[in-house]
Design brief:
This protein is an alpha/beta fold. Helices cover 25% and strands 20% of the residues. Strand 1, helix 1 and strand 2 form a beta-alpha-beta unit. The model has no long low-confidence stretch (mean pLDDT 95).
Length: 76
């Protein structure tokens, strides 16, 4: 089992919340930053036992399109 934070947090507030929640699942948390444009997100694959804390902000009730697009590239 692995624990991941998958965040889109341009100002850091959303990441802080995700980090606190993920810490409850264990001391070793792998971070995936959805704001990094150069990352190949299709290389991330998650198994049945993995825990993913996904956190993105909403603006006017909508999630940023870049975050949705990058999440869609992941497998799991």
């Amino acid at each position: 089992m692995s624990v991941y934070t998958i965040t889109f947090s341009p100002t850091g507030g959303t990441k802080k919340a995700a980090d606190r929640l993920a810490a409850a699942f264990g001391p070793e948390v792998q971070e995936i930053d959805l704001t990094a444009r150069e990352t190949d997100y299709s290389r991330f694959s998650f198994g049945d036992g993995d825990i993913c804390v996904v956190a993105v902000p909403s603006y006017g009730g909508c999630v940023p399109a870049a975050a949705v697009s990058r999440l869609a590239q992941m497998n799991g």
